[in-house]
Amino acid sequence: MSDEKKLTLSGRGTLGAGKGVETGKVRQSFSHGRSKPVVVERKRKRTLKKGPGAAADADAATNEQAAPQKTGEAKPAPTGGGRGGAQKPRRPQGGGRGGLTQAEIAARTGALRQAQEEAERRKVEEERRRREEEALRKAREAEQAQAEQEEAAAETEARRRAEEAAKQAAEDKARKAREQEERRKAEEAARLEQESEEARKRTERARAAARAAGTPEAESADSAGARKKKGAKGAAAKKAEAAKASKGRGEEKRRSGKLTVTRALADDDERQRSEAAAKRRERRRRQREIAGDGDKAERKSREVVIPEAITVQELAQRMAEKAPAVIKALMGMGVMATINQTLDQDTAQLVVEEFGHKVKRVSEADVEEGLIGDEDDAGDLRSRAPVVTVMGHVDHGKTSLLDALRKTDVVAGEAGGITQHIGAYQVQLGDGNKITFLDTPGHEAFTQMRQRGAGVTDIVVLVVAADDGIMPQTVEAINHAKAAEVPIIVAINKIDKPGADPTRVRNELLQHELVVEAMGGDIQDVEVSALQGTNLDKLEEAILLQSELLELKANPDRNADGVVIEAKLERGRGPVASLLVRRGTLKVGDVFVAGAEWGRVRALVDERGQQLKSAGPAQPVEVLGLQGTPSAGDDFAVVENEARAREIHEYRQEKLRSKRTTAAPASLESMFSAIREKQATEFPIVVKGDVQGSVEAIVSSLEKIGNEDIRARVLHAAVGGITESDVTLAAASEAIILGFNVRANKQARDAAEQNGVAIQYYAVIYDLIDDMRELMAGQLAPEVREETLGLAEVREVFTAGKRGRAAGCLVLDGKMRAGAKCRILRDDVVVYEGDIASLRRFKDDVREVEAGTECGLMFANFMDVKKGDQIECYVQTEHARQL
């Protein structure tokens, strides 16, 4: 191999063959003198000369293409060549004649061989995998084909069986129809035979009677009877032949072809009844069945569900009877009803029993059946914490006592220092026992709150201030506790004050039939001081002792139920309800119904603001996830799914709507009351509060304000902030908006300013009540009061001027005043009431005349004054009304 043809290895170049492409540029011409340069390439086929170096060059080229490049090994770069085709490779910089060494050639040859073997192996593997996939595909296709064949065979078999069943049913139906028709024809033939026999007997009797009488009509009767008998026999024979022919042929064939007189006369024996006649006969048969004249078909007795109200048509459908039959049955009972008229449950039951069906009465209230559940077994019950309600008069220290037990300060957060909500807390004692406390308001406006608190509690702690004694709300709390039949523990508070007298409290309790243990009774009493923390441990011991006597237990392993203590609407949280669990365990995700609202528990929060996963018996929690705000005091219960919850929710909402829209029965007293209410001035009010209990107390207090002249009318009362819709309602009714612990948003404030609607905010309920009382009193006209000044007697009447008459009077009592009002009494009857026009003493006008003095009086527009009349002088003053 020559040096020019040999491939060389260069340090800077790459190993490769020379380019076999020559390039050049030509200019391509277009029309209108345009041209464009174009690059032209020409490939030249490489020709290799046979020589001693040809094989080596070929091996080297093959090895060069197949062998992988090694790290640090550079390929020789080809240099530009001439026209000869192959280009000279550069020689390595180290000098010498060398090309590839034998080791390199061997390595490249081995690599090439390995690559070829790997390619063969991959090809064999690919062929094997392809065969397996082809076999698997064929197997799947075979299984699918077999399944389709089996399915087609099953479908064909089912179709065949259905066709056989339909064919069998059709054959049975046709057979029954044939048997019925044959039976009918046989009965008809027997009836005709019987009629002909009866006619023959009558004819014979008539003929015998005629023979006995010896009249010539006998012969004619005999001949007529013979003809009639012959005709009857012929008719019977024809009918028998027709019946026999019909039996042989099966079903009768309808007349076909053109009907002519000859054919009609000739085929008289084969005439058939028309379709109209058959329909009339069927109609008469049905009427006989309905009327009960014919044989009644056997009815299938069904169980008919009857709601509280049902229409005649629906009742007929449920009984599978015809509506005319039901209407006829109602007419038989004296009830004239149409098909769309509604029947009550009792009438519908009578109709169902008349038709021989069974009655199942249902009510809309049945949706609530099983809501609370059955009583628990004694083996499932576990001990639970007692629920203790703290009650008493306002400002006697109920909340402070709870703060001392809980070691918190709730009083500081209450507006006016009084409690205006029911608060629920659970206290854990040092020995691990728990007590649930309910703090109720003591203000008189919160009567319903205290009543609810006493209704859900186990024990009532009656807080009485030692320096104040028994007060009105204390008596009310005692009555609530007695009505709920719960035990009472008396906590005599504020014993640290100088004027404290616990003995006085115990003596006053005797007036209300509460005898403490110190006086030989069974009611525990504890002297405590919430401020100093005195005897709090004794109060806890008394509560635990009373709970042990009550043996309080509940089943935690069941669906939860309990009572709504309080409900409110919070921004960002939606409707929030404070619940007290009675039985079971309330868990996150439970679907429950609370009053007329329902929801799914999204979160459980205790009184400390901590998130809980579940709440057991006697545990108070706040629940998020309600669809609306329930009323305080409503019961709640967990249900199995949302469908049941929605069903109960819709029933209770409908019940509330009907309750609001149902008018009270009219009576004479209600009519007069309505007239009085229409005459009274209404003071419209819109109430928005923070919680349901406070709104309820405000509405109850406002309804008590007023008299026969004015009364408060609450247009809307709800929980939540004041919105633009509230302002719109108030503007339309000229009402005032009261916000209790809530505020109006910006849109509501702007709308109120634009429409001139007054919005008043309150934090203490008695401030709100006092202001409303003053505002309502200001709407009334002032009260006019009469004050008597004096009494005078007419001694003489004389003429004054041309047409006037003056009365000479003696003042008997008080005084007479010029310009004042007077009343003239004659025999104790008022004959004039007006003003004193002139008052004179002798001839001088005076302002007043005292008792025991004579004077002259003239009256405005009155001259019929007589001697002996009594003149009563008085003045009228206006005073502001009070409610």
Blueprint (SSEs and pairs):
Blueprint: E1 21-29, E2 35-43, H1 54-66, H2 102-213, H3 217-249, H4 261-266, H5 275-291, E3 303-306, E4 309-311, H6 312-319, H7 323-332, E5 342-344, H8 345-354, E6 358-361, E7 382-383, E8 387-392, H9 398-406, E9 423-428, E10 434-439, H10 447-455, E11 459-465, H11 472-484, E12 488-493, H12 502-510, E13 524-527, H13 536-550, E14 553-554, E15 561-570, E16 574-583, E17 586-587, E18 591-594, E19 597-605, E20 611-612, E21 614-615, E22 620-626, E23 635-639, H14 642-661, H15 668-679, E24 681-689, H16 692-704, E25 710-719, H17 724-733, E26 736-740, H18 746-755, E27 759-762, H19 765-778, E28 783-800, E29 804-817, E30 821-826, E31 829-841, E32 844-845, E33 848-850, E34 854-859, E35 870-879
Parallel strand pairs: 3-6, 8-10, 8-11, 11-12, 12-13, 24-25, 24-26, 26-27
Antiparallel strand pairs: 1-2, 4-5, 7-14, 9-10, 15-16, 15-23, 16-22, 17-21, 18-19, 18-23, 19-20, 19-22, 28-29, 28-35, 29-33, 29-34, 30-31, 30-35, 31-32, 31-34
Helix pairs in contact: 1-2, 2-3, 6-7, 10-11, 16-19, 17-18
Description of the molecule:
With 883 residues, this protein is α+β, with helices and mostly antiparallel strands. Among the domains are: 121-178; 303-362, Arc Repressor Mutant, subunit A (Orthogonal Bundle); 387-551, Rossmann fold, CATH 3.40.50.300; 575-661, Elongation Factor Tu (Ef-tu), domain 3 (Beta Barrel), CATH 2.40.30.10; 680-778, 3-Layer(aba) Sandwich (Rossmann fold), CATH 3.40.50.10050; 783-879, Elongation Factor Tu (Ef-tu), domain 3 (Beta Barrel). Helices cover 39% and strands 25% of the residues. The chain contains 19 helices and 35 strands. The protein has a six-stranded mixed sheet with strand order 9-10-8-11-12-13, sandwiched between helices. The protein has a six-stranded antiparallel barrel with strand order 15-16-22-19-18-23. It has a six-stranded antiparallel β-barrel with strand order 28-29-34-31-30-35. Helix 1 (54-66) packs across helix 2. It is extended, with a radius of gyration of 58 Å. The relative contact order is 0.04. Residues 1-301 are annotated as: Disordered. This is Translation initiation factor IF-2. Belongs to the TRAFAC class translation factor GTPase superfamily. Classic translation factor GTPase family. IF-2 subfamily. It is found in: Cytoplasm. Its main location: cytoplasm.
